[in-house]
What we know:
By secondary structure, this protein is mostly helical. It has helices at 2-16, 32-35, 42-49, 64-84, 89-100, 102-116, 124-147, 154-177, 179-209, 215-223, 227-231, 253-277; strands at 62-63, 293-297, 300-306, 313-317. This is Ubiquinol:oxygen oxidoreductase. InterPro entries: AOX (IPR002680), AOX_sf (IPR038659).
Amino acid sequence: MRSSTSRAAALLVVASCGALAPPVRPGAPAGALWARVPGASAAEYAAVYGPRDCASPAGDGMDERIFALNEGLVGATKGAIDALYEGRDFARFYVLETLARVPYFAYLSVMHLRETFGDRRPGDSERMRTHYAEADNELHHLLIMESLGGNSSAVDRTLAQSMAFFYFWYVTVVYSFSEPAAYHLSELIEDHAFNTYDDFIKDHGPKLKGMPVPDIARKYYERDDPYLRDQFLTVKETDGGFTSRSRPPLESLYDVFVNIRDDEKEHWKTLCNLVQFDDLGGDAAGAPEPTRPCVVVGDECFIEGEDECAAEPVLVASR
C-alpha cells in the first residue's frame, strides 16, 4: 500500500513538473515519462497522464517497437531504391509498383487459408474484395510503368521480382501473427508512394503535360467498368459519395500520374483505418490520420494525445 501511494505521488510530481521536461513526440522517447517511475501500474499511469474526461485519440496506436521496425524497413528500402535509380524515374516506379502489389497478395493468401480451415470472420468477404481491388489497381500502375519503358532492363526486372518474392513471404508471416503490424507496414509504404508521386508531379509537371496518355491508362481509368476502382474507395468523400467517376479527364501523362498519386492516397486511408479501427471504413466522424506509436504497458498501449485539461502533451490509453 505504501509503495503504491509512493508511486502515485511520484507520478503526480512528474506530471506537475512536466513543463520542465521536453515534450513527448511520436516515435522518439515515448516511454521516457513512464520510465521515471519504475513499477507504476497502467492504472496509476493512466490516472495521471490519461484522464478519461479529456481528449483521447479515436483509434489504436501501434506498439512503438513495431512502429520503429516498420519505419526502419521502409526508410532503408526506399532510400536504397531511390539511390540506385537516381535519374531513372520510370524504372524506379516499375520496381516500386512491383513491390506495391505484394502485401495485398499476402493478405489474401492468409485469409483464404484461414477460410479453408473454417475460420470465417465477420467482414472478411468485404475485406477480401477490397484487397483484391487494391491489388488490381497496383497491377494497372505497374502496367502503366511498363508501357513507359520502366521494365526495359533485365537487371531491373530481376531485382524487382527477387525483392517481391522475399517481401511476399515476410508479409505473409507478419500478417499471420499480427494483422495491424502488417497493415501498418503498408500504411507507411503507401504514404511514401503518395509523396514520391506528388514530388515527381511537382518537379516534372510541364514535361508530363506534353506527353501522351498510355493506352493502358486510358483503358483502365476511362473505359473499364469502374466497379473494382470504386471497391477500394472505402473512405467517404465530403459529398458522401464513393464513385471514382469524378476523377479528372486524361489529357496528358500528367493526369495519369495525378490519378496514380490519388490512388495511393486512397490505399493509405484504408490502411490507416485497418490499423487503428480494424475496420475498412474507420471512424466515420473524421478523416483518417496517420497511425501514431504508443507505449505498451501491461494490457494497454499509451499514445501521445492532446489533453484538453492541460497545455502539455500527455500520453493516453489507446486500447
